[in-house]
Design a protein that fits this description.
It holds the Pfam family Flavin_Reduct. By secondary structure, the chain is mainly beta. It is built from four helices and 14 strands. 12% of the residues lie in helices and 35% in strands.
Length: 201
């Protein structure tokens, strides 16, 4: 099968998200200039550079009370900071609770009963029990083709790792089983790993 996205795929559901899988989930916490706080998951998320460490996430829809975007991007525009909280399998339900199209006045930490902590290097909340948190300073927001598509890039200025996730001096993903996003309504979790050496190593 071949199709051009501009012509449509002819299938019951869009296969694009099912092809580009698995995707890590960036659970983005922000604080607005008015002090309100927000927490929302984004599956268009990844690390993009080592030195300095940098990450990105993309927001692809808008809310009527936020104009051309959603709460996360709107808050980051105001404050220039955000935190990426890593999602473990055990937090799948509370993460999903924060994905709703809630009004900007709604605090998803409170809504889902999630304990928060203050970041160390930026004025922003973080998910206290997450396996890891990446405190980020905004570097740029890029408007992508299409309505309400924004890619947000940030430099990581502080990293929290939960002590029980560090095994033999390494961050052990099997200790918390990262939640990953697939297509449609599907998710998966990392339950096994294997290693490969690059040619010449």
């Amino acid at each position: 099968m071949f199709y051009r996205p501009e012509d449509g795929h002819g299938l019951p559901h869009n296969p694009f998200n099912a092809i580009v899988t698995p995707r890590p989930i960036g659970w983005i916490s922000t604080r607005g200039s008015d002090g309100s706080e927000n927490l929302a998951p984004y599956s268009f998320f990844n690390a993009v550079a080592y030195v300095p460490p940098q990450v990105m996430f993309s927001s692809t829809s808008a809310k009527p009370d936020r104009g051309d975007t959603k709460d996360s991007v709107a808050n980051i525009r105001e404050t220039g900071v955000f935190c990426v909280n890593i999602v473990e399998y055990a937090m799948r339900d509370v993460m999903n609770k924060t994905s709703g199209p809630w009004e900007k006045e709604v605090d998803e930490f409170d809504l889902a009963g999630i304990e928060r902590a203050e970041c160390d290097t930026i004025p922003c909340p973080r998910v206290a029990a997450a396996p890891a948190n990446l405190e980020c300073k905004l570097t740029q927001i890029v408007q992508l083709p299409g309505e309400a598509n924004f890619a947000v890039f940030g430099e990581v200025t502080g990293i929290h790792m939960r002590d029980d996730c560090i095994k033999d001096g390494m961050f052990d993903v099997l200790s918390f089983q990262p939640l990953t996003r697939l297509g449609y309504r599907d998710y998966s979790r990392i339950t096994e790993v294997f290693s490969l050496k690059r040619p010449g190593e």
